[in-house]
Amino acid sequence: MAIESVASLQTTVSSVSASAPAASTDEPASTVNTSSAATDDTAMPGGDRADVVIDDIFKASAYGDLDKLKEFIERTPSAVNQPDAQGYRPLQWACLNNRVAAATYLLSRGASADAADHTGQTALHWTAVRASVGTLEVLLRHIADIGLPAGGLDPTSALGDGAGDGAALDVPAHSMAAVRRLLELGDARGYTVMHVASQYGHANVVYHLAMRWNADIDGLDLDDRTPLHWAAYKGFVDATKLLLFLNASPNQKDKEGCTPLHWASIRGNIEAVNTLLQGGAKDSIYAQDVTGSTPQQLAAEKGHRHVAGTLASFRKSEERSKRVSSSWSAWNRIVTAMQTLQMAPVIWMLIIGLVYFFLTSVVNSALFLYHPLGLFGAIASWIVVGSSSIGLIFLYRTTTADPGFVRVADVYANSPHMREKGSSGMRARTGGSATVNHPALWSGEWERICVTCKLVRPLRAKHCKVTGRCVEHFDHFCPWVGNVIGRKNRRDFIIFLTLETIALVTSCGLALLRLASVVPAPGHPSGGGTFSLARLPQASSLVIFLVADFVVLLSVATLCIVQISQVCRNVTTNELANSHRYRYLRGPDGLFHNPFDLGWYRNVWDFMVETYEEQPQPLTSIVSSTMPKRVA
Ligand SMILES: [Zn+2]
């Protein structure tokens, strides 16, 4: 890819500070710079620079031409810290473009790591513009003076040594103080490196800074805005999610009284709004800015009707649940219990009612006074009664079971990569454990963060909005069962469906046979012995049973067949419906590919016999081969 002139880089970089929200909430969008450097990859490493003449130290740094760089500095050693015509230094150019070798060389030749340009930005600010994690690490290690690992940092890993393990570095306290000064150094508008990373939506930089260097995620700029304000305002959902997961303050107000939710609402960023609401910004829906406006009012003013509607319905449901919990009367308790069970009582009544109806209208009706069931009929009747009853036991188990709720302790106990070495600040934020340190996050799998449960979900888990918790192998929430169908109760659910299908088919068949045998008794005035439609009204209850039975059979059997076919393919309803959202369900060609499908026989066996057993080895290897690291 052709690289544009260095001058174009200067424009994109200076746009970092030009992209602040306006001081007034009226016209925030007018100052938003849409041509952010984050989307401009023309100057990324590895580009073709055949058409660029490296004729000064700045270009040599920006393009990482180490030979030329050495040549220039050898000739004029003082040039290492001299700014170009716009006031930017060689180290800034090298850091912007993640030129690890060039940055290392410049530092070794005396380049000042904390020198600021006329906007107050240092080379560290510039690393956050294009997520240049390699040079970020070089800079901070240089400040901490802990040196580089043998052989230098590997620029392809972007994390240097120990890439992916996410351990915080052991840095002596006095060195850490110097690092903290640089991390907290604000530019002319008070933006720290964490602000810049959030402004460009680089979740990997935010994570790296927080976990490895214990950077403050709630730092304030000159308008009292936190990185979360910025990520929400810009609509960067991954960064918003990550900051909330790292326990950033969701309801912090800036100088205008605006919370992150205000800014996301002003911009109409519906995904950011939803993420904030799920991640603890509930109080912000009532918060008023200096003009007295709530996020909902601002969204409506700006014409973001969808956002205003979402906020209004969230507010309503919050108020409803508050009302219910505050008036804890007996009636409310019953209502809450019924709400939890959803339609489950209806299904119980339906099944018991159908069995009763079956016994009275098919098996033991006065209509069949002269038509005994016979052995076949008796067996069929017992099958119907037996299957329905045992089915109800499995329904009960499905409703009352833990469907596979994810617990924080489980997630971390099962992860061999967990370190208890998380930085002290992070430990304090997360209640004493380094639970935010997760290999999936070092690989950039932000979609696995649950901001509500504050955990990194196992691969096939999903957050259930009804139960408010993450569920392993989430299939769907079934209102008829009154529970989520997940890893630990799907087998019971399918057995229930199968037993009920058997009962419904058998009762339907028997009812049809009985209908055919509705013939007048011998000696009847109508002339016994032959079937006549005229007799149907007398068999009305039998006909009604048949219709009801058939309708229920259609829906239950369909669900049963769908579920069994999914088990044969080792896929969940949720995965099929939302496959586009899951990276692990995409093959190298970008099409749907299920890495868990081991063939129908093996799938069914695993499901029926080893359903609670994890098989981390094959799955991990399959999945990691299809998921490239995003931080690279
Ligand atoms: Zn959750």
From TrEMBL:
Ranges occupied by ANK repeats: 86-118, 189-222, 223-255, 256-288
Q: Which Gene3D superfamilies match?
A: Ankyrin repeat-containing domain (1.25.40.20)
Location comes to: Membrane
Composition bias, kind Polar residues: at what positions? Answer: 27-39
Q: Where is the composition biased (Low complexity)?
A: 16-25
User: Which controlled-vocabulary keywords does the entry list?
Assistant: Acyltransferase, ANK repeat, Membrane, Repeat, Transferase, Transmembrane, Transmembrane helix
> Which EC numbers does the record give?
2.3.1.225
A Gene Ontology MF term for this entry? protein-cysteine S-palmitoyltransferase activity
Q: Which domain of life is it from?
A: Eukaryota
Enzyme class, top EC level, equals transferase
Q: Where are the transmembrane segments?
A: 346-369, 375-396, 493-519, 539-562
Per the record, a Pfam family? DHHC
SUPFAM superfamilies according to UniProt: Ankyrin repeat
SMART domains (UniProt xref)? ANK
Q: Which InterPro entries match?
A: Ankyrin_rpt, Ankyrin_rpt-contain_sf, Palmitoyltrfase_DHHC
From the UniProt entry, list the residue stretches annotated as the region Disordered: 16-46
Any one cellular-component term (Gene Ontology): Golgi membrane
Domain free text: The DHHC domain is required for palmitoyltransferase activity.
Question: Which family is this sequence assigned to?
Answer: Belongs to the DHHC palmitoyltransferase family.
Give the protein's recorded name: S-acyltransferase
Species, as recorded: Pycnococcus provasolii
